[in-house]
Amino acid sequence: MVEVAVLRRHDLVYIKPGAWPGLLAGHDLGDLHQELACWAALERPTVLRGRIGGDPGDSVPLGLPLPPGMDRKRLAFACSPGGVARIASPVLLSEALPTAPDRWRAAIDALLAEGISWRCFGSLAWQHLTGLPYLTDASDLDLLIHCSTEAQAELATRALSIVAARAPMEIDAELISSTGVAVQWREWTSGATELLVKSLAGPAMTAREALFP
């Protein structure tokens, strides 16, 4: 059984086939019911989300972002720990590269050349995971970078600043500390002494020096 305490934002959560009917019950899915039955049958993942009112305290809170062809809805479920088959880290950017639009390739290649372990979420990750058409002309490149130290955060943001200045798409990236708290990369580069951060507990303000001690 999965330990809820070890889960992190953006983790991919795979559900046991027998747990899907219970997750879908009580949701007015309309025309999406067949699509989600297919999603379950193909063992596609969900993603860990923050808790909302009504989530049982011992449950695993999950989100399922749907592609534009399914109205781009984001569904919310609460699964018992026993219904979780396995957990996976977000997709490595290097693995998702073949799925990226051609016009993104040069920017992604430049990021990968930095030797940083970039991970991705958002449209690129979901299209890579499912084969469904999530990416549009307006899509951003959404990245995650785990940083144990301030020096690692500075290295990542320097690379992001250089690549983002000439990239054809917007780049949205989160720097994730060893405690799982995340800050948006432009927030970090602002130099502010108080930063808006995100965690499974929700958004909060924290002192800059406390983020990567």
TrEMBL record:
Entry keyword Nucleotidyltransferase: yes
Name of the protein in question: Malonate decarboxylase holo-[acyl-carrier-protein] synthase
Keywords carried by this UniProt record: Nucleotidyltransferase, Transferase
InterPro entries: Holo-ACP_synthase, MdcG_C, MdcG_N
NCBIfam families noted in UniProt: malonate_mdcG
Pfam family membership, one: MdcG_N
The Phosphoribosyl-dephospho-CoA transferase MdcG C-terminal domain, residue ranges: 93-208
Residue intervals passing through the bilayer: none
Domain of life, source organism: Bacteria
Limits of the Phosphoribosyl-dephospho-CoA transferase MdcG N-terminal domain: 8-90
GO molecular function: nucleotidyltransferase activity
